[in-house]
Design a protein that fits this description.
alpha/beta; five-stranded parallel β-sheet; At3g01520-like_plant; UspA domain-containing protein; 179 residues; UspA; globular
Length: 179
Amino acid sequence: MAAKGGKPLTTIMVAVNQSSVKGYPHASISCTGAFEWTLKKIVRSNASGFKILLLRVEVPDEDGFDDEDRTYGSAEDIQSMQHSFILARLKFLKFFVKQCHDNGVACEAWIKQGDPRKLISSEVKRLQPDLLVVGSRGLSFFQKIFIGSVSAYCQKNADCPVIVINRSPSQTPEDNAED
């Protein structure tokens, strides 16, 4: 895809994720900050020169119980829950897509499931964006060891320049692992 004047668009991949706070089905603080920073500091008033690739990576439920776990009494119950789950996933992406469109920026959005570190890096390799922007929760040294840092992994393994956006101190919860 080319921008006005025939120049190719600069593609920026932004990794987005849902908040880790239970009962809070919205974008995380760190990914929202990274996305807004991208629009404000990189795209600015040159929206026609950029394309934003929005990648949401969902981590599979490892403990066997989460907010979507339910007991179903009928096929209709299952179908209704599946429909609700799909709508919630699309609503999440719609938040970012709408902001891109409101700012006149071309975008694509999609969802993958798996380890965010590996999937973000493999999607970068597949799509070859000019830049990857990720948010950071600001984990402590020990949290990075036990939880793992997606942003640090991407900085080391992504096949393009990576910008890591830290949360502002006013947006940082008491527990940095919450986002």
